[in-house]
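so i finally got all the pieces together for this one. its two components total, 778 residues if u count the protein bits. some of the lines might not be protein, just check the labels. i wanna see the whole assembly predicted at once instead of chain by chain like last time, that was a mess tbh
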Amino acid sequence: MIQNFDYQTPTRVIFGKGVVDRLPGVMKPLGRRVLLAYGGGSIKRIGLYDKVKELLKDFEITELSGIEPNPKYDPSVLEGVRLCKENDIDVILSVGGGSVLDCCKAISAGAKYDGDPWDLITGKVRATGAVPIVDIMTLAATGSEYDAGGVISRTETNDKVAYIDSLLFPVCSLLDPTYTFSVNAKHTAAGVADAFNHVLEQYFCAEHNMVADGFCETLLRTLIHYAPIAMAHPDDYEARAEIMYACMYGCNGILALGNSQSGWPMHAIEHALSAFYDITHGEGLAIITPRWMRHILNERTMERFVNLGVNLYGIDRTLPAQEIAEQTIERTYRFFESLGLPMHLREVGIDGSRLREMAEHAKEKDLSQGEQYVDLTADDITAILTASL
Amino acid sequence: MIQNFDYQTPTRVIFGKGVVDRLPGVMKPLGRRVLLAYGGGSIKRIGLYDKVKELLKDFEITELSGIEPNPKYDPSVLEGVRLCKENDIDVILSVGGGSVLDCCKAISAGAKYDGDPWDLITGKVRATGAVPIVDIMTLAATGSEYDAGGVISRTETNDKVAYIDSLLFPVCSLLDPTYTFSVNAKHTAAGVADAFNHVLEQYFCAEHNMVADGFCETLLRTLIHYAPIAMAHPDDYEARAEIMYACMYGCNGILALGNSQSGWPMHAIEHALSAFYDITHGEGLAIITPRWMRHILNERTMERFVNLGVNLYGIDRTLPAQEIAEQTIERTYRFFESLGLPMHLREVGIDGSRLREMAEHAKEKDLSQGEQYVDLTADDITAILTASL
C-alpha cells in the first residue's frame, strides 16, 4: 500500500556534452566569491581544472584541494569552513565525485554556523543557513548531485555519518558524461555498484508500490545493460551518459516515494567497514549486498526477491519462489563479479579480526534508530560480515 | 542516444490521506490574502470547500468560482486577474482538477502584468512575475500539479493554447487520493486516458533512452493495472493513490529527459477538437490516440511500437515486427474501450463537417513550430480525424 509522502527536489540539473560552458551563467546570480573544491588532482589531468578557472576568470576564487575519498571532517570540512568564513564565500563550486560534493555540503552548512560543524553533521543542531552549492560531477555513482545529503568520516572515532538537510540540495548540478570517460575500471565498477545498491536499499521494504518498483527496476536494468559497455569502451558516450543519468536518481527519494522506510541497512554496514578500513564505498557495497540479501531471505521477504528476479533478471515466474529468490541473489552476485569488483572482504584488506566490533559499531551508529525492513542485531551483522570474508 | 537536458521541478508534493490538514502551514509563509479558486461546486458536495474555509479561517479569502473544464480566458482568467489586482492577493489556492489549476497559472502570471494577459499566454510577452500557487487536487489526470504549464481556451477564436513558464510551478501540491473517490466513471476514465496519453506523447520520439523508456512503461503499466480497479471500486484507496501518483509525472518532463523532441501531436489535434466542440480532453485523446498510432506506423517508427508492445503488453518478441506493432495499437484501443471511453468522434458530438477546418487549425496553431517525431500535414490530421469518426 502506498504511504504518505512529502517530497521536493529543487536542484536544477544541466546534463550533456559541453554543459560546463554554462558555468558562468549559473554562478553569476549566486555571487562573486567562490570556494573551488576538488580532490586529488584528477580534474587537472583531464583539463577540467584549467577550463573551470578560465570560465570563472571574472570571479574571486579560493581553492580547497585534496578532499579525500570518504571525505574527512578533519581536515577537509574544517578547512573548508574556515576558508568560507575568512573569505566571505558566496558560493561553493564542487568539482569531482560524490566525496568532494558530500564534503562541500558539510562545509556549506558549517560556514553559516558559529559552533563546531560536527554538531550539524550529527544532527545535534539543525542548520539555519547554508552557502549555495554548484557542482560539476566527474564520477557517476552517488547521486549526491541530486540530493540533500552527504556522508562525512571522522577518523579518530571511526565515525562515518550521513548528514541530510533540505538546505543542502545543490542549486545546480552540471553533468557532462565525457568527464567520466577517464574514470578507471575500478572506480567505474564501484560507482555502478554504489548506484545499484542505492536502488536495492529502497526496493527492499515492507510497503511498496507499482510506480516505485518500476522506477527501481528501470534503473537497475539500465546499469546492468550499460556497465559492461562502459567498462569495455570507456569513451562510449551513450553508456557513460545512461549510467550518469541513472545514478542521479539514487538518493533523492524518488525511488521510494510512497514506500515504507527501509533503513538502508547495507549502507549502515558498509559505513562501518569504511570507517574502520577506509575502503572504496562501492566495493564494500558490492561485497555486502548479496550476503545481506541471502541473510534476510525468508518467507516474509520472499515477494521482493521474486518480483526483482522476474522483472529485472527475467527469471521464469513459474519456478518455485525459493528458487527464483536464490537465482536473484546469484545473478546479483555475478553481475558485480563480472565488473571485476572484489567480492570478498579479504580482497580489500579486511580480515576477520574486527568483524564483531564493526557489527556493533554499525548497529549502534546507524541501525539503532529508525525503521528497518528487517531488523538486524549485531549477531546478524556479524554473520553477514563473516559470510563476506 | 541520450540528448542534453536542462531540468528542474521545484514543486513540493505532499501526498496521502489527510494531507490537506497541512494547508495552513503551507500557506502561512506565502501571505494572508488568498484567492480561493474552484470549479462548478463538486468541492462543496464532497465537503472540501467547508474544510478549506475552516482551515483558512485566519486568512483573508477572495473567491473565484465557476472555472470551466477547458478553462476559458473570458471570463475565468480575466476575472481572476482582476480579483488578484483589486485585492492585492498574496497566494492563489486552486482546489479542483487540472482545469482549475491551469486557469490559476494564467491568473498567477496575469496578475503581475499590466497588459492583456493573452500576451503572456501566447508567449508574445514573457512573464516577469507570478503570484505563488498552492493546489489541492480532486482529480487524477493532468499532472498540472507538478508542472509549469496550463492550457487556456478562448471561445470566440477557437483557440486552445498551452502556456508554459518556469515561474508557474505550484509552490506546493496537496494530493489526497480520497478526494478522488467521488469522481464518476466518465471522468475517472478520461483522467486515465489523459495521463496515458501524456506518457505516449513522450515515448514516441526519435532519440530515446533506457531510463526514459522504463519510466514511461512503468506509468502505463500502473494505469493499466489500477484503472479497472478504480472504476469497479471507486473508493479503493490503493488504486486511486497509484493512479494519482502515476498521473503526477505526466507533464513535468521527467519522462522525456534525454529524449529528442516529440511535439505532442495528439494533444495538438485534441486541442483543436476541444476548441471547436468543448469536449472532455481525455475523451478526445482516447479517440485520437490509436488512430494517430496507426497513421504514423511505418518502418522508421516500428521500433517504438515493438518496444512498447513487448515491454508493456508482454507481446511475444519473436513475432514479426508489423504484427507486434498492430497488436500494440489494438491493445491500446481495447484498454481505452474497456474503461467505457467513447472511441468515436460521433459519440462525443463531432460529425464530419468540420474535420478539415480543425486539422488546419491544429496544424497552424500547434504543429507549425517545433520538432515533430513524425511531421503531420493538414491532410494527415484530416485522415486521422476521419479514421476517428
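Chain B touches chain A through 40 residues (CB under 8 Å).
Residues 155 and 275 of chain B are 7 Å apart (CA to CA).
anyway lmk what u think
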